[in-house]
Batch of 4 targets.
Target 1
Amino acid sequence: MKKIIANLNKAFDNKVRLGIMSMLMVNEWVDFKTLKEMLELTDGRLASHVKALEESEYLEIRKQFIGKRPNTSYKATTLGRKAFSDHLDALEALLRLKG
């Protein structure tokens, strides 16, 4: 049991970060506006969680202009994908435990 819990990644304890990574796992790139709308977050709340994931090197940020408008998009890094997959595996192992 301790080993399973040890495999849970603290970076994904928060439901917002769990949501961000879930969206990035199934989409190559997701822009700020889409994440904000899908997760029903304020700009500041989303930005703070994105920053935490970026500091862990779990996501990559791309800033570009579309027409004359700035656009910020995010992509899960290879490290982020592995960490998130390992976290999900640990959650599944917890669900299979019998007490």
Target 2
Amino acid sequence: MNAQPHDLKAQLLQTDHEFNQLAAKHHELEDRLHELTAKHYLSEPEQLEEVTLKKRKLQLKDRMEDILRRHRQQA
């Protein structure tokens, strides 16, 4: 049977350099988004940053899912 999704992610975090870098960047963007959402008011540049961060985060997640999918198919 195939490895569980969590197990595969953990394995890739340790063995796949690209996946590890994508996950680290995704985490950095998540932290920055939390900083922005904690504010009561966002300036216009901060609003733009928030939208840009969300889009970039989604791109990273999509790429990570592509890598996961590729590894599942190879298994």
Target 3
Amino acid sequence: MDARDFIKIGMSAERLLVVPPERTVGHFVKGMPLVYATPMMILEMEMTSSEAIRAALQPGWITVGTEVNVRHLAATPVGATVRTTACVIAVERRVIRFEVEAFDGARKIGDGRHARGLVNYGSFTKRFGGLEKQP
């Protein structure tokens, strides 16, 4: 399977998230403020990237995160709405590369690059003795 046959540069997606307490640094580390945690921002960037290309994937194929290079630029409080964007910037045989950004209103709070690898779901799960069924 060659991703270049069906994934196109420019494919994109956007997600919105109202920051809940369980996605903050203070939720994970006692005594820290309740501001949006970097790993949670990266999670949203990965999910947005996945959504940007999901409809184009062939049956039985999924993508998995393989690279993350992200900057977290500003703190965002609980209750703020974060908008995350992802856009395909390069497509290789089995790797799709994205530019990702996150915003709190007009203020950019994160940016970077993310890559996802194209894998056959059956082969992937067979390596681990079977996992839950594909959603």
Target 4
Amino acid sequence: MMKESIKTQRVVTFLRREEIDFLDKLGKDALFYNGIKIPRTKIIQLMVDILSKTNIDVRGIRTEQELKERILGAIGR
């Protein structure tokens, strides 16, 4: 039986320095504690995957802050 290949698409995003530092720290902490470096792209990919499983309802959201609060509520803070 032949495996299906997973098709990915490139997404370009702009992050602030502190956001990049956070992703780098996660990756480096994993390397230090477990011997496996996790790249930024994999961390972002996993965050999207987790958020997609929350069934978050975005109806009525008008601001980024409202979206942030809704996301935090969906993942259980």
